[in-house]
Amino acid sequence: MIKKLAAALGIVVFFVLAGTAAGYAYWSASVSTTGSVQVADLAAMNCANPVSLVNGDFETPVIANNNWSHPGSTGVAPWVTVRPGTQTATSPEIWRGNVTGSITPASGAQNIEINGTEAATFYQNVSTAPGQVLEWGFWHRGRDSASNPDKVQLTIGPSTANGAGVQGGTTSNTNPTTLVNDGTRLVIVFPTTNTAWKYYSGTYTVPAGQTTTRISFTSHTQGGGNASQGNLIDGVTFGSGPCLNLGSAIARVGGTQFEPGTTARVTTTITNVGGRTAGSSVLTLPLPTTLGTPSNIQINGAAAGVQSTTAGGMLTVRIGTGANGSVGGSIAGGGVVTVTYDATITGALGQTIATTPTVSYGDTANPGIVMTRTGSTVSVTIVDTTPPVAPGQPTVTPTGTTSMNISWAASSSPDLHHYEVQRVSSTGTWATVANNVTGTSWTDTGVTAGQAYAYRIVAKDAAGNASTSAVGTGLTHFGSSQYRIAWMNGTTAVCVDVENGELRNVPSCAGAAPNTQRWTFSATTGDTRVVSVSNTSQVWLQDYACTFVIFCGYSAAVDVATPSGSDYADWTPEAYYDSTSGNAFVRFKNAGSGSYLGATNANANAQLNVSQTTRNFVLTAL
Fold first, then answer.
1. What is the pLDDT of residues 474-483, one digit of tens each?
2. CB 99 within 8 Å of CB 175
3. Which residue range(s) make up the domain with 570?
4. In this structure, are 54 and 198 located in the same domain?
5. Each residue of 100-130: pLDDT tens digit?
6. What is the spatial distance between Cα 574 and Cα 588, in angstroms, rounded to a whole number?
7. Which of 227, 251, 283, 593 is most buried when burial is the number of CB atoms within 10 A of its CB?
8. CA 225, CA 206: separation in Å to the nearest integer?
């Protein structure tokens, strides 16, 4: 397949690219094509077993600027340095910045001197597959002489126990000399003076049965004659063509559930796992119909700007170094680009959000070839398990004897569907009295006069998730004949039968109670006053056996202060919710003291109960 492709594309195995510029020269093999050629199989080949070097720019370990160091045999990992043809360890010399004369690194901030302490072989092993066509390239420069070149020997072939030795044969002082090219080993000697860096490149085809391939650089000759000085190397590449892998993820912004109306973030990661730089890199993302218009489009955390366009249901992003509004950029081997965008979830429950990214790119070493890779489809299902935000505590306002208005502040949830109104009175349990309420108020016409009610508002979304709710209470207006305790038969000690206006726990009619006080509950619209007919003791007698009623443990005191004005004679009924029993009751609050009408003793038998027909109003202790 490789041979056929080479013939079809006109690959020239080796030729010299003439020309020098700014202290740099080039010698290379190249690919010659006409027009743009789509090669899907080439992308598959490059990606089937991607090969690339590690630390080919020698940027680790980092040393001090404008300095040098001897890091040892394995100090420039994963490169290994040994004496030529042996396993004996030696050390290269690593340079950073300007170390001698005007020489600075050709690529990045650091370079290697192979003759760091003596003649040496510098190598790295990579995993390969038989039949792969791997491209190699490196920068070389002599150190000491402008006329006598340093010569470095490139050896590519199977890994061996020893480092590559110096290959015998006559070599040129001006041009590369191929000493071995037998289908297994490639040995070329490259001469370079100290006047300029020169870049050399070419290809190597992995032979049958070879799964580990070694690339070695051996100091062949030192132009200055000093074995501990010479052969500067930088920017080594060796590997398969570019291979852009795609990975995708979909996440919720500000949450975990993919709910309608919330924001999803789609992330696509593009990684060049190949051995060469990918050029003209363009990512295309079909836009899911369950998402709105993309926003906040970013490339590596920065706004994409003109590098992204949206049209025809497709988001196109030009990525890589040098990308702009019209062309894609380059992604070096090992390079990673991350593209993200946000969009509102517009789909319905049970639908999916899916993304299938595609990237097109070229091989910078083989202009004109366009490769494409399509990533796996990633999808999530639109669900809703998060309850809406609770609405505000309801305000309950009586609008008559048989109606109550309930209003509340709206829930802030974007996926709110409706509200449910629940009610409880002094008996029974909570029950839903209104459903599918879309506004923030509702009128309850199913109430009775003089009754206390508690309400709670539950916000619900389309999935049926329900919010929590605070409780609001209200008391309907009293009827004109309600809550009156009348003086009967003109006596000071009275009993009241079980009928409208019943007052329980008054003295039995069989005995006299000299301090019993008569009280009248006078009903008016929206308000009820408990008015003292005479101020003898201001105490409701509850236990006839007590001699001194006001000190009796079971007495129920209205107010011990002598009323000097209407405030201490005014008692306003209000509703309250008892969370223990889960019911709503009426209690009477004194306008002056703020105390509530009720028993002074905590004993459960000491409650003062006012009953209206079948209704008991349990009054709290003072």
1. 888 766 544 3
2. no
3. 502-618
4. yes
5. 988 999 999 999 999 999 999 999 999 999 9
6. 6
7. 283
8. 36
